[in-house]
Amino acid sequence: MTSRSEALIELDGVRKSFGDTEVLKGISLNVGKGEAVCVIGPSGSGKSTILRTINGLLPVDEGFIRVGEHRVHELRSDREMRPLRRQVAMVFQQYNLFPHRTVLENVAMAPVQVLGHDPEEVRERAVRLLAKVHLDGKESRYPGELSGGQQQRVAIARALAMQPEVILFDEVTAALDPETVKGVLETIRELVVEGMTCVLVTHEMRFAREVSHRVCFTDHGRIVESAPPAELFDAPQDPRTREFLAQVL
Amino acid sequence: MFGLDFTWLLDPTYQGWLVEGVWITLQLAAVSSLAALVIGLFGALGLTLRLWWLDALIELFVEVFRNTPPLLQMLFFYFTLTQLGFTIEDPVTGLQQPLFNAFFSASVSLSLFGGALCVEAFRSGLDAVPKATLEAARSLGYGRWALFRRVQAPIATRICLPGLTNVLTNLFKTTSQASVITVPELMYAAGQVYNDTFRTLEAMLLVLVIYVALVSLLSWALLRLERLFAYPGYGQGV
Amino acid sequence: MVINPSYEQRKRLLLVGILLTVIALVLVDAARGGSAEWSRVIARLPLLLTGSAQGWPITGGFLLNVVMGIASMAIATAVGTLLGLSLLARRRLVRQPAFVVMNFLRNAPWLVVLFAMLYLLPYRLTLLGVTFEFSPLAKAIIGLSLPTAANFAEVIRGAVQSVHAGQWESARSLGYSTAQIYRRVILPQAFRRMIPGWMNLYALLMIATSLATVTGVQEVVTLLRTTLSMESETTLVYFYLAVLAMFFAYCYPIALLARRLENKTKGDSL
Lengths: 249, 238, 270
Description:
Chain A is of the alpha/beta class. Chain A has helices spanning 47-54, 78-87, 103-113, 119-132, 148-161, 178-193, 205-211, 229-234, 239-248; strands spanning 9-18, 21-31, 36-40, 62-67, 70-71, 88-91, 166-170, 197-201, 214-219, 222-227.
């Protein structure tokens, strides 16, 4: 309708400041349907902030953001954003599960309470999704009883239960023990293969290279370089990208 | 070493006075605790509306009652309320009774004092819900009210239980001050006993033990409640 | 210039506004010759504050509450520290009695402890050849300091336990002894976190000094009640409001400061 391009997600000239610090200095980014885009870069370069502007958790100061037919920069309240949030799910670094609900309830509550879907149908969906993330049998546990990696997979199931068109992953393995990272990454890889549109902020360079269709390198609030992984990792054009990759690889 | 003499305890008259005192203490504590919880709930709900003038008024209420002696509050309410001179007809005797008697004044005063403490306990519970958890709920599409009802309030209730235990035991202990305005509760009954027996130290020690037993029982029960409501694996030393 | 005050600023502005309005109303009233009630209160104010009608010497009144509060706090700090460290002791023989004492005193109403002390403490006690005289004032101070000490012990325990366990491990692996770990590592960190609790406790104690009226000490509530017996009934509300205001003016700033410090130390955990 109001789209200026064919992309599912479109950011143009997005600026955002916290107090006197400008965190985003004009971000432009397109993500096509079914595409997996990884955002990499040094800490404090604004990676997580980009994700939070896409689903409206952070209002932007300037610029244009569109997801599907929603013009995010024009939405003001949580109520106006509800249809957007239905389409865009998010998975967090600290999982942020609801400690007062069981695993199954964590997955099923928002579809019932927010989307008003039929509880029985949602329950079945939740059980199926938990099996998909290899957590069958844990339905009636509480989040506090699970390991970090298990909690993160519940969080992914919770995101999927909303039947979103896009999932945003915010450094989802950064808080995990190394041995549980693999299971989470495996789950994400399956989603990408199935054609889910994903935007991932990550420190796992190898994973970024394997899973994504395109990698964006951010530094000081700007996207410095954006290219398919093979190109960006093997033949980076910008000196800042080269310097960063030299440090982390 | 003090030559303690507790033989008067065998006298049914004194037993009766003390039992009656305990009964009134329990009533006073129950009434004012319930009212305090209701006041605290409405106060905390008022704060979540984020209206600056309401916020200011609630803060004024909380700080005034928290930072002045409950004893003076009680004396103040006792003298001002009874001075109003409203009376009701006693259904049994047909006599005119003052509507605002000592018990009523003490209840009002303790409810407001406890209510101020409860507002604070609920508020700190709501504040302690991790911002990240709320962010997750918002990103799932929860609106403000649904977020409060489904996520923030249930977690906050759990978090504020220890604080609430403190408030309620504190309120229970404060009921003893109602004796100063002649509410015939336990402390007052002790006074009656020693005026009669001249066994001041014994009466006081006995009452001290009774209070400690009652308050310990209350805090034990509330601790059980805390355990009952605990979410497995959550909040036990992160 | 456009002034767009933030939520917090608006809130504070209203609170300060209410406070100033109340003060202004009382002052305007007093300047105009004043309503009869307020002029009675003002006439008695020196008595209520200092215990003497002329305002000197200080024999009682609100200043006596302040003195009692400070004296009790000093005793409570000393006793509470001992009790608190006993709670943390590794020997059960030390720890468990300390727990019993602390829980007993914390679960006892202040008023009842005060009364019990009044009758439990003798008028005169000779210990090691030194004779102590227990005036009602001394008894009140001791009676108030006991529950405060128990609460302070709990504050100490909480603060020490809030120091991350890793600190213990790393200090021990560096070869420090338990006493050294307390002195060099744990207590310096815990100390910062104790201060807000200590201040809150002082404010609470100050409020509780009003209970000393039951011992017959000439503190402000006692004086208030004797004054009221001589004044007409219509002035009663005004007198109460004046004394409530004294306590509020003294305790609220302390509570406020304690909360500021608490918010400041909250961040530096771990």
